[in-house]
Amino acid sequence: MERMLAVLGALSAGLAVVAGAFAAHGLRARLAPELLAAFETGARYQMYHALGLLAVAWALGRWPASAAAVAGWLFVAGTVLFSGSLYLLALGGPSWLGAVTPLGGVCFIAGWAVLAWSAGRE
Prior knowledge:
The structure is a single chain. It is built from 4 helices and no strands. The chain has helices spanning 2-27, 33-62, 68-90, 101-121. By secondary structure, it is mostly helical.
């Protein structure tokens, strides 16, 4: 599990760099400033949580029986829901995706809480 979450973290970090570069070089002239800011927020939070996935992988290596894997999967779900919905909204996706974004934020918050709880128990 730790290796899979480390791979997902590294891939997500790479995709966050791609998304940020795409925003800076491919979207800056094409999107309204508020849509560009939303896209960039998605990339920034994706990077934060990619690093969080690497921290989860490290925690699982140190405390294999911990609940840290739950935190990792919450970070993955949060990235898909939060960053994914912001990317799609910025690129012209349906407005109902705005209701999905906070669910991703809740996954992020829950992931950090589970990671803290997991580390505190070991």
